[in-house]
């Protein structure tokens, strides 16, 4: 549900808010979790907590049965605060120092992502006896954020990495992929599943039988718009079908039971968080080429909640102007002195009510993912947005 119904908890909280904030609908997040668990039976859901590191959200997910994909000792500590067992937390970042590994081990985490022999040797020394899963590289094609090049290795290198792990006294437990964040195509998943199958066969040839496959993140949110303001409309149902079929196929490749892990980040939280911001100013300026351009400056932008505005735009609701007939095309931008702080590179105007004035509230929808984690501390003196969680009919203020 990317469009808040006027009487739901999110809309109620947004309309009651007198000042800027980000609001999460815990009930919506829980429903999203349940829906994914129904769609992918047999897959363990490990929420990638960087997408929304808010204690209340993490606690709600943990109570529903989620575990966590953590990327640092601080994230592990935050995940443990929910009361979840350390066995439901894995260290999913391939990049970690000796100190990070030792800290994770001290915090009782025993499962680590890796993609290099150097990292495996460090895990063997600082987290002896642990389970490792090797991340395979993907192209990132079809995703809004590819996550390629920096992570993952080729299938033959994964065999070398897991062989090294076994020789070093670790358990070569699994393989992982990440098809790129907000992945829009089924083909990317198909390709990742092919690479997993190929690598599993090569590992079997070395006498290594995995006990799990981690399909990573990348599942899309449904409420985003592209840079020009058109709905993105990802084929979620088809993607889930490809995943179910792929899981069956991989299960058929090993005689021993194969468990699956998924690490959704944005898919669980994006459409259930919204920002209440306000209009700073609607202006019209003549450009050096003689054309007039409208700019709508909001109190919230790239540095205080809408970090992903380089690739996408959000649906906006101006609650005081719902019946307004007269609209203008305006480039929408945040409040700072940085020219990157603008939607669509500052090049794609969208339709906004013509009579917007300073102070008018605006609701920015499907803004729940990577919002609080990417907020700067005080760029141009702008403080991070306060975060409010609502549930049912509570949370009005
Ligand atoms: C960020 C991240 C995720 C979550 O990605 P989404 O695209 O938000 O689902 C999952 N796994 C790993 C290893 C990540 O780094």
Automatic annotation (TrEMBL):
Q: Which cofactor does it need?
A: pyridoxal 5'-phosphate
Keyword entries, A-Z: Decarboxylase, Lyase, Pyridoxal phosphate
Q: What is its EC number?
A: 4.1.1.17
Q: Which reaction does it catalyse?
A: L-ornithine + H(+) = putrescine + CO2
Instruction: Enumerate the GO terms in the molecular function aspect.
Output: ornithine decarboxylase activity
Its pathway? Amine and polyamine biosynthesis; putrescine biosynthesis via L-ornithine pathway; putrescine from L-ornithine: step 1/1
Q: Where are the transmembrane segments?
A: none
**Gene Ontology CC terms, in alphabetical order:** cytoplasm
Kindly give the PROSITE patterns that the UniProt entry links to this protein. Answer: ODR_DC_2_1 (PS00878)
Q: What are the Orn/DAP/Arg decarboxylase 2 N-terminal domain coordinates in residue numbering?
A: 28-270
Q: Where is the active site?
A: 337
Modified sites of kind N6-(pyridoxal phosphate)lysine: 50
**Family of this protein:** Belongs to the Orn/Lys/Arg decarboxylase class-II family.
**Name of this protein:** ornithine decarboxylase
């Amino acid at each position: 549900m990317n469009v808040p119904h006027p009487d739901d908890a999110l809309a109620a909280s947004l309309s009651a808010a007198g000042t800027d904030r980000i609001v999460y609908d815990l009930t919506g997040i829980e429903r999203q979790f349940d829906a994914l668990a129904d769609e992918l039976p047999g897959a363990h859901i490990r929420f990638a907590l960087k997408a929304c590191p808010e204690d209340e959200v993490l606690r709600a997910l943990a109570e529903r049965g989620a575990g966590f994909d953590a990327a640092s000792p601080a994230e592990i500590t935050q995940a443990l605060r929910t009361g979840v067992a350390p066995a439901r937390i894995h260290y999913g970042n391939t990049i970690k120092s000796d100190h990070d590994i030792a800290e994770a081990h001290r915090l009782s985490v025993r499962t680590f992502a890796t993609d290099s022999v150097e990292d495996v040797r460090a895990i063997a020394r600082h987290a002896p006896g642990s389970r490792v899963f090797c991340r395979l590289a993907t192209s990132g094609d079809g995703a809004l954020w590819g996550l390629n090049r920096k992570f993952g290795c080729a299938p033959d290198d994964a065999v070398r990495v897991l062989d090294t792990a076994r020789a070093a006294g670790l358990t070569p437990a699994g393989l992982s992929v990440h098809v790129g964040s907000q992945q829009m195509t089924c083909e990317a998943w198909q390709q990742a599943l092919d690479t997993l199958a190929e690598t599993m066969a090569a590992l079997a040839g070395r006498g290594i039988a995995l006990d799990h496959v981690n399909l990573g993140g990348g599942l899309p949110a449904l409420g985003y718009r592209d840079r020009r303001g058109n709905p993105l409309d990802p084929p979620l149902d088809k993607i889930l079908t490809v995943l179910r079929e792929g899981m069956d196929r991989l299960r058929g490749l090993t005689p021993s039971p194969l468990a699956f892990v998924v690490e959704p980040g944005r898919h669980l939280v994006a459409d259930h968080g919204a920002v209440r911001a306000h209009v700073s100013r609607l202006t019209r300026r003549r450009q050096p080429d003689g054309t007039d351009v409208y700019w709508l400056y909001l109190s919230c932008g790239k540095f205080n909640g809408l970090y992903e505005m380089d690739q996408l735009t959000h649906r906006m609701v101006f609650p005081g102007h719902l019946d307004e007939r007269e609209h203008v095309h305006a480039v929408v931008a945040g409040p700072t002195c940085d020219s990157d702080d603008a939607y669509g590179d500052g090049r794609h105007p969208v339709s906004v009510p013509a009579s917007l004035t300073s102070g008018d509230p605006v609701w920015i929808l499907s803004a729940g993912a990577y919002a609080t984690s990417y907020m700067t501390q005080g760029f141009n003196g702008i403080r991070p947005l306060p975060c409010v969680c609502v549930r049912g009919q509570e949370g009005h203020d």
